[in-house]
């Protein structure tokens, strides 16, 4: 068997709010609550398991990048602008209100409700090989 990522746990202020935000943003299914987790499954079978942390707990911002189609990018970017979310062309947030065109594709960074940074890209870094 080859090694594959199966799931990761994402700390959140409210697991339902964060899971539904990601599911709505990317058109992904939000699964049923399982213990302290609410899973969101990507098309390659990886689950992002959102867990609510105790109130007052610091949540270090993490970065989650999603490879999406051009159509999925368009739909998500429309939601980003409709929600008036801040967005950037770069991970250091030096280019606000811009998208990037790295490797001939499009990319954007924006925050989720718990302060994690989500990235959408239409071409993987290094281009298609």
What do these coordinates show?
By secondary structure, the protein is an alpha/beta fold. It has two domains: 53 residues, 2-Layer Sandwich (Signal recognition particle alu RNA binding heterodimer, srp9/1); 68 residues, 2,3-Dihydroxybiphenyl 1,2-Dioxygenase, domain 1, CATH 3.10.180.10. The model has no long low-confidence stretch (mean pLDDT 97). The longest helix has 13 residues. Strands 1-3-2 form a three-stranded mixed β-sheet, covered by helices on one side. 22% of the residues are buried. Helix content is 19%, strand content 25%.
Précis, in short:
By secondary structure, this protein is an alpha/beta fold. 19% of the residues lie in helices and 25% in strands. The strands form two sheets. Strands 1-3-2 form a three-stranded mixed sheet, with helices on one face. It has a three-stranded mixed sheet with strand order 4-6-5, with helices on one face.
In terms of DSSP E residues, the strand content is 15-25%
Alpha-carbon Rg, integer: 15 Å
- Class of the largest domain, according to the CATH hierarchy? Alpha Beta
The SSE order reads: EHEEEHEE
Strand arrangement, major sheet: 1-3-2
Low-confidence stretches: none
Largest sheet properties: 3 strands, mixed
CATH architecture annotation of the largest domain:
Roll
Number of domains: 2
Number of strands: 6
- The CA-CA distance between the termini, in Å, is 23 Å
**Structural class determined from secondary elements:** alpha/beta
> Please, how many helices?
2
Helix content: 10-25%
Assembly type of the chains comes to single chain
Broad shape: globular
CATH topology of the largest domain: 2,3-Dihydroxybiphenyl 1,2-Dioxygenase, domain 1
């Amino acid at each position: 068997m080859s090694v594959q990522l199966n799931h990761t746990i994402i700390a959140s202020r409210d697991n339902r709010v964060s899971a539904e935000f990601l599911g709505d943003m990317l058109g992904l299914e939000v699964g049923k609550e399982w213990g302290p987790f609410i899973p969101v499954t990507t098309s390659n079978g990886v689950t992002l398991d959102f867990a609510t942390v105790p109130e007052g707990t610091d949540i270090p911002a993490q970065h989650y990048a999603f490879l999406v189609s051009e159509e999925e990018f368009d739909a998500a970017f429309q939601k980003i602008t409709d929600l008036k979310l801040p967005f950037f062309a770069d991970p250091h947030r030096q280019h606000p209100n811009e998208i990037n065109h790295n490797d001939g594709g499009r990319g954007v960074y924006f925050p989720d409700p718990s302060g994690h940074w989500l990235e959408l890209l239409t071409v993987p870094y290094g281009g298609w090989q």
